């Protein structure tokens, strides 16, 4: 088989917009070896845009004497004859080449095509990026001149050979199922797959960890637990053997330096375990808190034969624990212990449902087909079935909802699929584990569902604990939104549509089948109509309220709190009536499902599959009925805060309804703290000043059963950080918002000149961020800095962070979520700007409701709620800058209140002692220049 790899450099992204080819690189592969290469420059007969020249290194003078494309077209066509065309993003290269060929009188190419982007996604689904430069680094492929055509073609050729090799190692069943999907993929793989299937027809796959069941090949193995062991040392001796200067950590790391705070944290946790007390431990950045809490957890679990739980907020920290800290401790500790990761059902693939979708599901949607192909390869490699291991296309996550273990209920332990269930495997591992790592979301779900999801435990360590109150409140509350409700209705479908209801209906033989189909169709049609009407009414109602004083979320959504007096308004009473009608439509659908279930008559032996499908549909409809009642009824046992959000940027009806308890503390006290022996909360931000009183009150922990400990960071902040506060900024209080934002932008650009960009700017409002983003781009004369703005630049928080780190001179603008959890170590981040102190807007629905409740109790909402929240968030923001002992940087705070207001000292007292400069902006920039470059 002959393959020709091509890569083009062009004057633009589209031939339809007068884009021209300026260079081609071609690499010929035969018998899996590179046989020849060709490269040629072309005169595009038009100027090359400057940014293309900067990217490729090809300038006008270099192509001035080059041939035109037509001069080389015949030779190019000859090389491509009777071959596969391979390209990285083949649609672009082949499309461009065909446009040039046909416009010069040559026939369009009809070759079979393979896209190495698509094939890489399928065969290596765990890679975080599929850019050619990233793949070249990942596979260690030589790349002498990136963005030049021959170099890129050569690397793509090497990549293709890697991909072909991987394809050759897949099991027969996987290749067979891929071949069933091949015609809907962009790559022409049929001949390659057919040849390989013929070779494998009578061979067994050599990997005995690969299971083969009902035409599916997948990896699934029960890890054997080691022998039970004990640590025959007192806890003090155990810590000595690890932490002391000649201990296990020193032997593992040549540069190890004992950290007093790390040992103090381990001792405090063990004391809490021994005394069956709860604990709050604030550990400054650099303490090494993961190891500090893992060591007492392992000692307690192994010596006392009891299971411990560790809960984190981010998957990033879970990965760090599992991939870095746990392997290190298994290496240095002379004892055996088992660790398991446990997540919610929606994270795990259900192989039975996946097989059903492969054999009977629709293949119309490209994202769905690509996702099926990705999952087919992934299940031959994963040991967990946890979807967080891989990258799916955008639509792939919608498909995954159909095949996740979320709908896995009442699974028969005698069924073979029970033993081939990733979720059940995770549960078995968790049951046998000494330590279970989970997340706050599943911990709270378990707590509020009578502890039905996690194996029993009495001791738990909650890392990133400043998120726990918010997570618990969200999980006790609810969320309803138009898009999800309509998606559910469309997913269920009518009796005539090729959707979920028709799938279960066609399995029944009963006289009243048509009558039930008609009842279902009428109910779902009415439901979809009333969902539309209900959310449209809420949208109009919210937009008519508080015309000049609407709260906005950190992403710019309009927010409106549903207050007790709201229920007296005619529009809201109409919404209540609509919600009641919608609940009735859902009940009619449930009645149809109940009748189908009670008259079940299988025609194809797939009884269990259809009963599960019905149970899944019933769950969705019953949940909506309950949520609608909770959201629209006036009286509740627990006082709930309810609010609506309108996304003005989104499609029509981007309306969201939320509720959460006004005070989660009594609920946690009853459902959590009273039932567990020891709950350890740890974070870098738990105190205001030196007091834990705010967090204790918010979480409902009793003082008489509590240990507290503050551990300072080992970093030398006085040498690593300079804090600058300008005296000459406009006063935002008196309506000078535009002047203030202009001053912020001037300071950003002046400071960026000192630090060469590498700056994170934190805002407290999305509106201010948008204005600053626009203004910064206007103010830059030569566009020397790349501006990346949350909510403006597309991409998730992690994607924006990666983009920021990939540029030499970039400025990253973020709102609420960027104040914490963004880790940008080293020289990638040298300056942190805070536009305003992070006070919650007074009209934010949750804050407004809690504030009102405090006033009624005779308390001061500012001192008891607003200020502590702002100080904790300020500490989180400050913590973004210094992530290691080698980091240096400047913090610039535009809000003069930190020096002039009586409460300003609470902010400064909450962070480590650093040099504070309070001066004019001009003087501050001189200070920054002198210090930063010393």
TrEMBL record:
Task: State which Enzyme Commission number(s) the record gives.
Answer: 3.1.-.-
Annotated ATP binding lies at 283-290
Motif DEAH box, chain ranges: 463-466
Domain Helicase ATP-binding, residue spans: 248-517
Superkingdom per UniProt: Bacteria
Q: Which GO terms describe its molecular function?
A: DNA helicase activity; hydrolase activity
EC class of the enzyme, as a word: hydrolase
What keywords are annotated for this sequence in UniProt? Answer: ATP-binding, Coiled coil, Exonuclease, Helicase, Hydrolase, Nuclease, Nucleotide-binding
Which Pfam families does its entry note?
Answer: DEAD (PF00270), Helicase_C_2 (PF13307), RNase_T (PF00929)
| Requisite cofactors | [4Fe-4S] cluster
**Record CDD domains:** DEDDh
Task: Report the transmembrane regions from the record.
Answer: none
Reactions catalysed according to its record: ATP + H2O = ADP + phosphate + H(+)
Where does this protein have coiled-coil stretches?
Answer: 607-634
Family per record: Belongs to the helicase family. DinG subfamily. Type 2 sub-subfamily.
Alphabetical list of PANTHER family matching this protein: DNA REPAIR DEAD HELICASE RAD3/XP-D SUBFAMILY MEMBER, REGULATOR OF TELOMERE ELONGATION HELICASE 1
| NCBIfam families noted in UniProt | dinG_rel, dnaq, PRK08074.1
**Its biological purpose:** 3'-5' exonuclease.
* This protein's name: 3'-5' exonuclease DinG
- Native source species: Oceanobacillus locisalsi
